[in-house]
Design goal:
It is a single chain. This protein is mainly β and 141 residues long. The protein has one domain: Alpha-Beta Horseshoe (Leucine-rich repeat, LRR (right-handed beta-alpha superhelix)). It has one helix at residues 99-102, and strands at residues 15-17, 40-42, 64-66, 89-91, 113-115, 137-139. The termini are far apart.
């Protein structure tokens, strides 16, 4: 088992990939909250992080977040992401996010890429994202 709290001292870290790590839990994600210079975070296929995205709220510099295939992620997990106003890329493919969760992304005006392939979303969710956005790519199929 990994000691995720050892990350907390890496204050200058800008990129972190924990891809396919089944050992990281929502509680363990609290160790990521101190990585204030993080720009890129890859949590693809981390299937035990439900409720842990709340620990990412203070990562104000975060530009890219990959949550693809985190099938534990739901609409409720989207609320903390609303504070990540520097996000340019958000990968949510194969999560349990629906149109209701997309509403929380409304204030992410720098978002250029949103991948929600294989999610239960409809074209109606695009109404939540209309406005002064930088969105260049949206994947919904």
């Amino acid at each position: 088992m990994y000691n995720f709290y050892s990350f907390s001292g890496l204050l200058n870290l800008t990129t972190l990939s924990l891809k396919r790590n089944k050992n990281i839990t929502a509680e363990g994600m609290s160790a990521l909250s101190g990585l204030v210079n993080l720009l890129n975070l890859d949590l693809e296929r981390c299937t035990s992080i439900y409720g842990g995205l709340v620990h990412l709220r203070c990562l104000s510099k975060l530009q890219a977040l990959n949550l693809n295939c985190c099938n534990c992620i739901t609409d409720a997990d989207m609320e903390p992401l609303s504070e990540l106003t520097n996000l340019k890329e958000l990968q949510l493919s194969s999560t349990k996010v629906t149109d209701h969760g997309v509403v929380f992304l409304k204030g992410l005006h720098k978002l250029a890429l949103l991948n929600m392939e294989l999610c239960c979303v409809t074209a109606a969710c695009l109404d939540s994202l209309s406005g002064p956005y930088s969105l260049l790519y949206v994947f919904l199929l």
